[in-house]
Amino acid sequence: MEALRETDPAYIGAHALLARLGAGGMGQVYLGRSPGGRLVAVKVIRDEITGHPEALARFRREAETVRAVRSAYTANLIDASLAAPPFWLATEYVAGPTLGNAIGARGALPPQTCRRLGAALAEGLASVHAYGVTHRDLKPQNVILGVQGPQLIDFGIARGVGATALTQDGQAPGTPGYTAPEVLLGGETGAAADVFALGATLAYAATGRPPFGTGVASTVGYRAVHEPVDVAGVEPGLAALIEACVAKDPAARPDPAELIRRCDVRDALVDDPVYVALGALGEPVPLHEMRTQGPGYPYVPTQSVGPVVPARKAGRRVGLRAAGGTAVLVALSLAAWKLLPLDGTGGREGGARSGGAAGASTSAPQSPAASAGSGAATPAASKGSVKPPAQYIEGNQISHYFWKPSTDPDMAAHGQGQCNQPAEQKAPGADMQTSTAVSGKSVAIDMRIKYGDMSQTRPEPYYVSVAVRSPHDTDPETGMPFKVDNKSVGFTSKPVDIYGKWPSGEFLTLRYPEDFAEHVGGRTYPGVPLANDPGDWTLVFYHVEDDPTKYTSINCSGFRVG
After folding, report:
1. CATH fold of 11-95+279-314, please?
2. N or C: which end of the chain has fewer CB within 10 A?
3. Which class is 101-276 in CATH?
4. Residues 193, 134 contacting (CB under 8 angstroms)
5. Is 286 helix (H, G, I), strand (E, B) or coil?
6. Would you place residue 225 in the very low, low, confident or very high pLDDT band (cuts 50, 70, 90)?
7. DSSP character at residue 495
8. 367-405 pLDDT, tens per residue?
9. Is the CB of residue 88 less than 8 Å from the CB of residue 42?
10. Vertex 419 angle, CA 414 and 421, to 5°
11. Catalytic residue among 137, 473, 497, 536, which?
């Protein structure tokens, strides 16, 4: 959830807008308040696609589908405007994190929780199918873990009986890894395709891994058609149930009623302590803004308080916020949280991880070299109002930077290489210089901003945090990599004033892993050993503002391990 921007409207229709919930392929989603005070999720189609007939047809189909399906497992339609721009629809606001974000943050679910979740989702599908509608895009990011049970969202490509397809030639609907083989091969989709997607979703919940691996869409689709689902390590009975759901032949899959029977659920999902605890991974609603928004009130958007928890494990860093908009309205008791199959701090035994509230000062230990970066005796800085940032930066972004060594063998032998894209912002000064030196179990990272005249008055503080990212995403419990490209921000250093050595012009030196940790949702994860993941590691240098969630890349580098 994000604050409204200056360019955002105050109202959509009669609904007062309170915050941004996220963005989907069709447009922006807002948290809104109806005239009667009800919370709604308002999806507004993007201006640039309002003239696209296919996009408009899909948007109208979504509104019609949501209006037709009145189920306890779907967010009900409240209002819509489909006749003229801006096109929008408002649905009931469902509180809770998406299944994708929850698994990404906490890891795989226990077998019994998976069975309870599977039975609830199967009941939801049965309810939707009873209206003659197939969802066609069931996946972890389209399931919200609500207080009363899971909710299905995003019916943008759902189909009713007799409806025509809205996909372009040569394109299959749905999401790679969750789309049934018969759909990928161009056949008719039906209720059995939703069961396939449910089985793939359960596989993800049970393993914490994409059900058919990662890669380009065609590769993942090929695996879904020809290869078995990944259920390695899953309890045998649950694995057999998942495999039945994702059978290549749609006729061999159980229908939702049979799936519910085979889940053999004896207790309510909302009484499952693991399911209840996952609610803490959502975002609180900005209640103060909700009370004061409207005519006669000066509304100043603020960031909501609470952790935004991105996906942490393999293949789950693809999105921080779902298009349907999610949040948590209820507080979770500490007792319920401790019922999770982790220690009380959410970390490894012996205090390897330290828990803390969002915004707490939690950082990795600092080496003397790193400490010297911000505390060296130097000439007074020029007058300014630059505030020192927090003791860490929050891992709330997806990183698209990847470093590769030079294709020239001689240059590669000396650690030369390049990143796949330029930095977002130019570093100040005449030049930013960085270097790395791998030695045994650690790597020294040097940086400075070079000025032609070092005798001038010291510039205002300019805080930089370095992010170190291993080639592959890692399991926070073991520190070992998955075979999935790492798209997290990574392990970051405490922000340091890069002018801390002024006017000597010496390099500031940080050491990985000693000076680095990953900070996600108020929790701290220590840097993994270099030896755990040989390959090409990426370094991104970020300019950090006084908010730990606001940082911009100014340089990219890397080094090779092994």
Report:
1. Phosphorylase Kinase; domain 1 (3.30.200)
2. C
3. mainly alpha
4. yes
5. coil
6. very high
7. P
8. 333 333 333 333 334 434 566 677 778 887 888 899 999
9. yes
10. 160
11. 137
